[in-house]
Design a protein that fits this description.
Elements: E1 29-34, E2 41-45, E3 48-52, E4 59-62, E5 65-66, E6 69-70, E7 76-81, E8 84-88, E9 103-106, E10 114-117, E11 124-130, E12 133-138, E13 143-147, E14 155-158, E15 165-169, E16 172-180, E17 183-187, E18 195-198, E19 204-209, E20 212-216, E21 221-225, E22 233-237, E23 242-247, E24 253-257, E25 262-265, E26 273-274
Antiparallel strand pairs: 1-2, 2-3, 3-4, 5-6, 7-8, 8-9, 9-10, 11-12, 12-13, 13-14, 15-16, 16-17, 17-18, 19-20, 20-21, 21-22, 23-24, 24-25, 25-26
Length: 278
């Protein structure tokens, strides 16, 4: 997810019916999120934007649009309330003349979007929300932006490297943690300064509660921290190559792998079962 393909992904489903198009440009999975309205999932891949029922039995394509133009399916996403999202990505096949969408917003579960800020300037590959703070990391640059006024103004921050994933403490918007291709870094001052944590690459993160920061390492090991990443406990292991994490509270976790398979844990990451079969 740290790199971005040159062509925009189509917002139409893959021709073979799969949830991910393995022959197209990465990132294959842009985002996975839980809708607070009903617990259903929204999965963004390079083959489409997909609504997945809470029980995993029904998967439906969602055609994302902004005005008259399609929005690329491989979005970075974050729910801010029932059916309400912020995100980022590219225009779809019908190019609008704007190469990247900046921060965009939806109030209908991802079907329609409106621009918020930095349109034509930023391609965010990770978006995180804590209270009124929205932070977003550029996909290919060592830069993150944050706003606490809904996007009317942004502050930019230099990150150690381009961030693969970014999470903010849900109870303390000044505490950030970011994953890169060279390791994990944390900030206690809202992105102003960073310190290295460890050197494992491409860790995936989710922070559903202040005392429950959860990560999946490249080998599938699931770790949990109750002190904002100072120390970690191994709690389990998930199969597949995880590309996105989501949570419906500290104990109900979802992991989407590179093939679009979604797995669920209902015990905080100790055990996992397959929710969808693409």
């Amino acid at each position: 997810m740290a790199g971005c393909g040159g062509g925009a992904a189509s917002s139409e489903p893959a021709g073979d019916g799969g949830l991910v198009n393995a022959g197209a440009d990465p990132p294959y999975v842009g985002g996975l999120e839980v809708n607070p309205r009903d617990g259903s999932l929204l999965l963004a891949t390079n083959a489409g934007l997909w609504h997945v029922s809470r029980d995993g039995q029904r998967t439906q394509p969602v055609r994302a649009r902004m005005g008259k133009n399609d929005v690329s399916a491989g979005l970075a996403l974050r729910f801010t309330g029932p059916d309400e999202l912020v995100g980022s990505g590219h225009p779809g096949r019908a190019r609008s003349g704007i190469p990247v969408l900046g921060l965009i917003r939806s109030s209908d579960g991802g079907r329609t979007w409106t621009p918020v800020a930095r349109q034509g300037e930023s391609d965010f590959h990770s978006v995180s929300v804590s209270g009124d703070t929205i932070a977003a990391a550029e996909g290919a640059e060592a830069t993150a932006f944050a706003t606490d006024d809904g996007g009317r103004s942004f502050e930019s921050y230099t990150t150690p490297l381009a961030l693969v994933d970014l999470e903010i403490d849900p109870s303390s918007p000044s505490r950030w943690i970011g994953s890169t291709e060279s390791g994990l870094f944390s900030s206690d001052d809202g992105g102003e300064s960073w310190r290295p944590r460890e050197t494992l690459p491409n860790i995936r993160l989710v922070w559903p509660a202040s005392g429950a920061l959860i990560r999946v390492d490249p080998d599938g090991v699931v770790r949990r921290s109750s002190d904002a990443g100072e120390t970690w406990d191994v709690v389990g292991r998930v199969e597949g190559e995880t590309h996105a994490l989501a949570a419906a509270g500290p104990n109900t976790l979802y992991a989407a792998d590179v093939d679009g398979v979604i797995r669920v844990s209902r015990d905080g990451g100790a055990s996992w079962s397959q929710l969808t079969n693409p």
